[in-house]
From TrEMBL:
One of its GO terms (biological process) is regulation of transcription by RNA polymerase II. It comes from Sitta europaea (Eurasian nuthatch). InterPro entries: Bromo_WD_repeat (IPR052060), WD40/YVTN_repeat-like_dom_sf (IPR015943), WD40_repeat_CS (IPR019775), WD40_repeat_dom_sf (IPR036322), WD40_rpt (IPR001680). The lineage of its organism: Eukaryota, Metazoa, Chordata, Craniata, Vertebrata. This is BRWD1 protein. Gene3D superfamilies: YVTN repeat-like/Quinoprotein amine dehydrogenase. Residues 239-267 are annotated as: Disordered. WD repeats lie at residues 1-39, 40-82. The gene is Brwd1_0. It holds the Pfam family WD40. GO terms for cellular component: nucleus. Keywords: Repeat, WD repeat. The keyword Repeat applies.
């Protein structure tokens, strides 16, 4: 097998360079002389994640498609900590990305099964306020294109960026309670009645009919305590002006011949 470099990263003070090779080895190099200092052994599949510690120049994190996450001391060429991303009933999950927190006390990884893995010091109580499964109900909604080739949501015929904030659902499409819906940006100050989605029955790919979120109730901007959206107001104003111009043009345009021939004048 011809060796290929799959990832490269400098450490925090740029004294070392770490390369990941497709033979599953990590190599530590002196960045000034180019001398090979250490071979780091541990991964069993290709590595595409190398992250340096934000302030400790000795620490480098690696993660790969084998589900292994290693924290290395690259000055000594030793393994400091090892985690394995085992998913119950599904084997391991490949780790696709990872980032340290600015203070270096935590790091978070994402895997091939849609999980966010958070490691660090301290207790996990701040993270217990959210459910284990969180998806937006629009995540897998089909899209269509209009006559201008712009993308629209198939169900509502709206551009995705103009749709109301989505609802949080579990992996089966069942909506979470209202206390979780307020975690979605744009729904923080909504009344309870605006946090209850409209449910309906839809058929899945295997023919099973399940109850899922099919629409959403928009927030009444006149409700006390809610700030009206400036952007929404501008859009409504532009649409109103366009409708007025269209109506005026239609009134002033001469009607065509009775047999339908001819083209009416356009504004």
């Amino acid at each position: 097998m011809k060796p290929k470099v799959t990832m490269i990263a400098w450490n925090q003070n740029d004294n070392y360079v770490v390369t990941a090779v497709n033979n599953h080895l990590l190599k530590v190099w002196n960045s000034s002389t180019g001398q090979l200092l250490h071979d780091l052994v541990g991964h069993a599949d290709e590595v595409f994640v190398l992250e340096t510690h934000p302030f400790d120049c000795r620490i480098m994190l690696s993660a790969g498609h084998d589900g292994n996450i290693f924290i290395w001391d690259i000055t000594k060429g030793t393994k400091t900590k090892h985690y394995f991303n085992m998913i119950e009933g599904q084997g391991h999950g490949a780790v696709f990305d990872c980032k340290f927190s600015p203070d270096g006390q935590h790091f978070a990884c994402t895997d091939s099964h849609g999980h966010l893995l958070i490691f660090g010091f301290g207790c996990s109580r701040p993270y217990e306020k959210i459910p284990d499964q969180m998806f937006f109900h629009t995540d897998y909604r089909p899209l269509i294109r209009d006559s201008n080739n712009y993308v629209l949501d198939e169900q509502t015929q709206q551009a995705p960026h103009l749709m109301p904030p989505p609802f949080l659902v579990d992996v089966d499409g069942n909506p979470h309670p209202t206390r979780y819906q307020r975690l979605v940006p744009g729904r923080e100050n909504c009344a309870d009645e605006h946090l209850i989605p409209q449910l309906g029955y839809v058929a899945t790919s295997d023919g099973e009919v399940v109850e899922q979120v099919i629409g959403q109730q928009t927030v009444d901007q006149d409700e006390p305590g809610l700030e009206p959206s400036i952007l929404d107001g501008m859009i409504r104003q532009l649409q109103l002006e366009q409708d007025q111009r269209t109506g005026a043009d239609q009134e002033s345009a001469p009607s065509g011949p009775p047999n339908g021939e001819g083209t009416p004048r356009r504004g």
